[in-house]
Structure formats: structure tokens, C-alpha cells
Amino acid sequence: MAIIASLGLILITCIIIWRACDGFEMASNYLGRNMKEGIKGATMNAIGSSLPELFTTLFFLFVLKDKDGFSGGIGTTAGSAVFNAMIIPAVVILVVIGKGISSKIEISKKVILRDGISLIIAELALIFVITGPSLNWIHGLILMILYFIYVAYMLISQGTGDIENDYEDAADGGNRAIALFKGDLSTVVLGDSKINKVKAFGLLILSVFFIGMACFWLVEACEQFGTAIGMPIYFVSVVLASAATSVPDTIISYKDAMKGNYDDAVANALGSNIFDVCFALGLPLFLFTLIYGPIEMSTETIENVGQLRVLLLISTIIVFLIFVFAKNGIKKLHAKLLLLLYILFVAYSIGKGTSYDIPVINEISQLLSMISHWFTSII
Q1: Which of 137, 234, 235, 366 could tie 71 with a disulfide, CB 3.0–4.6 Å?
Q2: Whole-angstrom Cα distance, residue 22 to residue 194?
Q3: Dihedral in degrees, nearest 10, Cα atoms 25, 255, 337, 226
């Protein structure tokens, strides 16, 4: 019964996060309406759609208050990064081709190189910063600084000059009480009126509140589910929490793709990963260790976290190479390959998190540990 209840709660949090992020998307689209295509996807959209990862990591740390909380947080952010890199591009490709919009999608090489290389650098930094066994506020600060550098570069690279982007979104209108029950936050704030800067910020704040509330429930549900099936919270977060918090990223990229904004669709996924790795993990780590002191990780946690970081880096490099060397656009075959890679990742995570002795999983785990130890020895 506990398993069904916790899975039901996870599903409810997914719906709340999805609806709340719709409101956040409308507000961020208005506030970022003068940003160039590709820049908005990597900054405004990426930050908005990655708020669930930030809140979930915060709650994992501040609710569990131990090494398990940290492992749950890094499991969510890293697992979400793998989801974003593989599932989101695959969904975009399959939907665009499946609906007959195009037989392939063309993505700017500049966007791929810019965000792909930035993400690989961020993941290398994560490997070298989170070495353990003791973590403090400096580690969190380093990760946050990396994100600020990335955002500064993005804004500077946008250049100067007027950028005219039409803004067409509007609330559905109607009764505000009914809209609140349906999760239509844009109607709650706007009613039948048009959006402006003040209302956009109000919608932003209300959306953040509901996202935070849903993420708190998500952490509780993941903890209950892990206890019910006897799986460490780390592995539950890698699979379930990461997928739940990645719902907004998927929906925003899907909407961009349907409008033909393929650069923004992919830039959102890659930019979200940079936010997840650097800020959604860095800020909670910074705040928690500043308040409660250093986090002391067990040998098992260090091993699991080390393997996940290496797996994340390898996955990102594979996806990056697929995008860079895809001739004549990205097609359905590439989408199927990305889906297969994610299925293998989930299978590995579940196999690693269970008590069963699976030879293939053990061999992969040993290989990842060797690579992780090699990275550590470089420092």
C-alpha cells in the first residue's frame, strides 16, 4: 500500500510542477521576450524549468540533513541532467517527425558547441569539486560561480541592438477560483487582462511557491517509496525524482519545437543541465554547509556519487558527439539511439540500487569506479 501511495503522490507532484511551470513559462517568456533565440532557451527557460531540481535538492538536504540528503540531491540533479540530454531531444525529434512537421530537425552548430562544451566543462568541474569525504560551503560557491560565468557569457554574446519578438501568449480567462483548482496560475493572476511587467513578476512568484510545495511532497514521496521497497534514497532520486522534476523541461522544449524553435528546444535542455549541475546543486550545498557545517560522506556514498558523475560525463559526451557529427540534420534514428541510452542508464541505476548480484552491473560499476578514481588522482 505504501508503494502505491508514494507513487501516486509522485504523480500528483508531477502534475502540480507541470501546471506551475506553465505559469512560470508565461512570465519568463514575457520578461525574456527581447532575448535572441537560443539565448532565452539557455537562460530564462532553462532556469524556470529547472527550479524543481533546485527545490528538490534543497529539501533533500534540509529535510534529511545528512549524507543521504546530499546523495538524494546529487542523484536528482545528475539524473535530471541525463534525462534532459537524452529524453528531451528524443521527444523533440520524434514529435516533429511523427507529426509530419519535418523529416529532420536542424540545430545551429553554434548552439550545440556553445552549450555542449559549457556543459562538459561544468561536469568536469563537478567531478573535481565534489571529491569528498568532506564537503563545505566553498565547494558550493565554486559551482555557483561557474554558473554565473556561463550566464554572463551568454548575455555578453547576445550583443547589442534591438530584438523584436512578438509576445502572443495570454491567460485563458474565466473564474479565478476555478482556475486555481485547475492549476491555471496564469488566469489566477491575469484574469482576462493582458500581462505586463508587474503581473509577470507576480505570476513568477506564485509559480515558484507552488513548485516549491510540490517538490517538498516529492522528496517525502521518494523517501517513503525507498523505505517501502528497501532501495537507498540515492537510487530512487536518480530515477524517479529526476524524471519528475524534468517534466517542465520536456514540455517547454516540446512547445519550442512545435513552433519551429529547434535551437531554443535543445538549448533549454543543455542550459537546464548546466543550471542543475552548477546552481541547483551548488546553492543548496552552499547554504546547508554554511548553516550546519561540513557534510561528511560515507565510503559508499562517495563511490556511488563518483560513478554517477562519470556516467553523466560519458553520457553527455556521447550525446554531444551525436549532435555535432549528425549529417543532414538529426533524424529518427538518432532519437531511438538516445532513448536506448536512457533505458540502459535507468536499468543500470535500478540494478545498482537493488540487493541482487547482477554480473554485468557489477562490471560496469567497477569500470566507472576505476575512471572516477583516476579523475580523483589527477587533483
Answers
A1: 234
A2: 16
A3: 40
* pLDDT confidence bin for 256, thresholds 50/70/90: confident
Kindly report, residue by residue over 85-141, the tens digit of the pLDDT. Answer: 888 888 888 888 877 777 777 777 887 888 888 889 988 888 888 776 788 899 999
Torsion sign, CA atoms 126, 366, 340, 238? negative
Whether 70 contacts 270, CB under 8 Å: no
Buried b (16+ CB within 10 A) or exposed e, 127-158: bebbbbeebebebbbbbbebbeebbeebeeeb
Domains of the chain are 2-160+170-352+359-378 (1.20.1420.30)
Closest CA to 84 of 331, 314, 265: 265
pLDDT > 70? residue 161: no
Q: What is the pTM of this model?
A: 0.79
Of 278, 193, 215, nearest to 57 by C-alpha is 215
